[in-house]
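does this look right to u?? pyridoxal-5'-phosphate version
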Amino acid sequence: MNSKTVIPYSRQSIDRDDIQAVSDVMQSPWLTTGPAVVEFEAAIAEYVNMDFAVSFSSGTAALHGMMHAAGIQPGDEVIVPAITFVATSNAVLFQGATPIFADVDPDTLLIDIQDVERKVTSNTRAIIAVDYAGQPCDYAQLRRLCQKHDLLLLSDSSHSLGAMYQGRPVPCWADMASYSFHPVKSITSAEGGMVVTQHSNFSQRMKAFRGHGIDMSFRERSDAGQWQYKMESLGYNYRLSDIHAALGNSQLKKLDRWTEARTEIAHTYQCKIIQRGLALQALSCLPDRTHSFHLFVVKLLSANRDLMFRYLRNLGIGVNVHYEPVYRHPYYQDNVPSARHSNCPQAERSIEVVLSLPIFPGMTDRELNYVLDNIARYQEQMETCAVSLNTKEIGFGIGSLAKARA
Ligand SMILES: *Cc1c(COP(=O)(O)O)cnc(C)c1O
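got this back:
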């Protein structure tokens, strides 16, 4: 966000309890591998009704841990949606395996399960479903497919903490599910991530993986009064500190209230878009699941998305686009053969017309109206072809304006 931004697309909320929780840990004996980490893990596990939760230093490290625990290795294929944050499929690359990109449903931007089925081969080991924008994927159908082909069902739930699928939290439907606690997400620990699972062997593998592959943490050795430890596998230092965990744990207490607030803002957007006759369509919300509205994503029915993006950004409205199909990124095109051969027409078509509008728990009606007023104004100006923009400066000729109108 630049300094002109008046309304960001997302903003964390920090209160005095959060600051106190962090301050308490800073005055305690354990800044890392301490009790605050254990408490945060237990709180997340309880929140999503899982037996095991393993924290990581980021959502990306959590995805890497999940890939390691799943035993993903060179030669394996893992199916991921074309539209997700790059970290989802980067985690497959970290293990030397091959990400295979499945197309998305144009109404929801969730992974297209029929396309997944077409892309299963004898090398496929797992699917990583991504709950895009905060809406859970169709886990019942994904589970049937995974059982049929003997695949692990993994979930990148970075957007969907607080959402339910058929009345149960998302992780109940998957072998493992990962979270991110980056400041734009539902709750934050500044940086941080977590994987939850019902499988103790996965949990053990991840705990070793995040701590150098060593069988005991510093605190466990200290409590046991011994210096010896064994490194039994190759691991990383992917630990979440107690300072971060304390912040995350304090934030979790407010999650339900925040999810309600996000849901209300999303409903207000949906109603007003219709009332005001704006040429926008919110992505579909499916009836058998709840949505955590990490993002509020609309499709533009007529306007040129990049022009509208620049117009709104110039007014300090932090609109955004989530996400460029992963396989189109230069690194993927240059280094990942499966990406060069990827072709996901729905993803490519949809991403040209989507826009994420600002949404965060503290967002006021005034801010929401400011966003919609300016979208309405932009659309009126497009109607009369009098967009007051220097089209040369922003790199669009009259040609693209005419195209946008057509
Ligand atoms: C945020 C995010 C991640 C990565 O999380 P970090 O904590 O930033 O490493 C992974 N996948 C998705 C879908 C995300 O939105």
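DSSP finds 16 helices and twelve strands in the chain. idk if thats expected tbh
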